[in-house]
Write a structure and sequence with these properties.
By secondary structure, the chain is of the alpha/beta class. The chain folds into two domains: 195 residues, Alpha-Beta Complex (Spore Coat Polysaccharide Biosynthesis Protein SpsA, Chain A); 87 residues, no CATH class. It is 42% helix and 16% strand. The protein contains eleven helices and nine strands. Strand 6 and strand 7 form a beta hairpin. Helix 7 packs parallel to helix 8, helix 8 packs across helix 9 and helix 10 runs antiparallel to helix 11. The longest helix is centred in the last third of the chain and has 20 residues.
Length: 301
């Protein structure tokens, strides 16, 4: 669990892990050079299961997670965020499933999203094929990252790590895990309270959201190249640009993206076990939006 300036929320996150009904775990907390009272809060815990790593400078969440994984000794690596709350049976349920299903490498669960006073029960795809295809959306609809548990030997054997990115580094890891042969699964149980607030990296109202949205394009282009080896790089980028929220497209850009999308939707051979029915649905939705916008006249976003 990386943590940076979470003095108001980190106690609830920590307590939710310490009271798990499965207690054979190590709890690695990486303090990413917090400047508030986070370090003092962490130092106040006296539990042999907790290991605290103090980073001398603020490295960012991706590097902090990678350092934590390097220190991990367990059979499984469970991801946790410092502003979320795990249900008391989260670890026991996930460990039991992983023990019984050795073919699964990365396991997620459903979560209850908290936005202000609202509680929203989130549901996600259960099976490998749909999860892999939903990665193309890069919007959290494939899995919720802090619900995931991964096989440590698979991560290390394939030298997987989080890419250094301010956001969506979870998708970067999952994409490379898929290339390495990962099998994904998601449990039909809500095992985490997932809190959305103004200080989330991916908070919807951040002034730099434009930049964060454009960063998703690199992941979409990468996935499109993997799922559709018959496309050129220019074609995958054209589709990815078409899918980017808020991007202004002129007529040439739109036509290039639509033509590449039509070509992709005819390429139905699965490369990594992905569902092309789901992929066509995702790409088709964006193509329909672009076409509808131009039918009303002019440039679109």
């Amino acid at each position: 669990m990386p943590v940076y300036n979470r003095q108001l929320m980190v106690r609830e996150a920590i307590e939710s892990i310490l009271i798990q009904d499965f207690d054979d775990f190590e709890y690695i907390i990486i303090n990413d050079c917090s400047t508030d009272e986070t370090a003092e809060i962490l130092a106040g815990y006296n539990d042999s299961r907790i290991s605290i790593i103090e980073l001398p400078v603020n490295c960012g969440v991706s590097i902090a997670r990678n350092i934590g994984m390097q220190y991990a000794l367990g059979k499984y690596i469970a991801v946790m965020d410092s502003d979320d709350i795990a249900f008391q049976n989260r670890l026991s349920v996930q460990v039991a499933f992983m023990d019984k299903n050795p073919e699964v490498h990365i396991l997620g669960t459903d979560a209850v999203k908290i936005v202000g006073d609202q509680q929203i029960k989130m549901t996600h795809p259960r099976v490998d094929a749909i999860i892999k295809s939903r990665l193309l959306a890069v919007d959290g609809s494939a899995m919720i990252h802090p619900t995931t548990m991964m096989r440590a030997d698979f991560i290390r054997r394939n030298r997987l790590a989080y890419p250094v990115s301010r956001t969506d580094s979870d998708h970067g890891l999952w994409i490379e895990a898929m290339v390495a042969g990962a099998n994904f699964r998601l449990l039909n149980q809500h095992l985490l309270t997932y809190r959305r607030h103004d200080t989330n990296i991916t908070a919807e109202d951040q002034v730099n959201m434009r930049m964060l949205l454009s960063n998703k394009t690199q992941y979409r282009s990468r996935l499109l190249g993997l799922f559709y080896p018959g496309l050129t790089h220019a074609e995958t980028l054209a589709i990815a640009n078409m899918m980017e929220a808020g991007r202004k497209l002129n007529l040439t850009d739109a036509c290039t993206g639509l033509t590449a999308a039509a070509k992709a939707q005819k390429l139905l051979e699965s490369q990594y076990g992905e569902s092309h029915e789901m992929l066509n649905r995702i790409i088709g939705r964006h193509a329909s939006q672009i076409m509808a916008a131009f039918q009303t006249g002019g440039e679109t976003s």
